[in-house]
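Researcher: Good morning. I'm working through a list of sequences from a screen, and I'd like to move beyond sequence-only analysis. For each chain I'm collecting a predicted structure so we can compare shapes side by side. This is the next one on the list. No need for commentary yet; just the structure.
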Amino acid sequence: MSRDICVYLEFLTEGHKAQIRETARRTGFVPHFFTLDQFEEAKACLQHCKVLYAHSADLLRTAPASLRWYCCSFAGVDLYCKDPALFANPDCLLTNSNVYGVTIAEHVVMVTLMLLRRMPEYAVIMGQRSWSNQLPVRSIRDNEFTILGTGDIGRNVAERLRGMGAAKITGLSRSGRPHPAFDEVRPISDLDDVLPRTKILVMALPSTPDTIHILNRERIALLPADAYVINVGRGTALDQTALAEALNGGKLAGAALDVMDPEPLPKDDPLWDARNIILTPHVSGNMTLGYTCDENVARFCADLENYAAGRPLAGLVDRALGY
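Model: Good morning. Structure tokens for this chain:
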């Protein structure tokens, strides 16, 4: 039986490759490395591999039914959950890499401070070569936060906000199960009750049928006029048209979106011109931070040990749930 692994990634250093080779050696596997400009070579190799470590739906689509495990180096795996036809083997294991919490949490802190300290408005003032410096500002300290999604990203955000003196951090999750990173965790079914008391809403949800437009027009209207919305989960979770209208109508204080639907955002989308908005092109959780890359490889190696030993995979995704 083949014990080959196809690794098709762009961020690996020589140190990462050595780490993977050593883990593969101990577990009886042989890794084969390809860069993103070697698609055809990776495709040929994949035909005799049991394991694929990549983030390419196109490559996965070419895999034979003998593929047993696809480790996606991205956290978002909604595409693979929505389209089972991507897997020639319907029983192929799918794992993802929930290692983006640190870098995304730092992005959330950055844009939160930018909003609270009125940076979008000061950018307009300075862009007009004007000089007005008396806009009232708010602080993370003694403020209240609602985090929609209590997974790796939500927990990392909560921990950093706590370290900066946040007064209260409420999490919302599917189960409502308590977690020490939050002052309280409530089920998502309580969202309508929580929104009217929300000052800063951080959205860190995966894309599933239950989360599409979870923050719709009616729920945006429940938020106070001085509330901020930050979305670093999936763009599908938010009604962008309703958000732009609320911002332009003074019904919300501001927003920061790192994820949008669709991506790239069309040039004529109303979000571009919305009032007090910070838009970034899906950069909060990519592979530009060394720590993220190191953890990505470390978790793949840990799960390769699990796979070889017949233990459950730590990053296993339930394709029916979407995460």
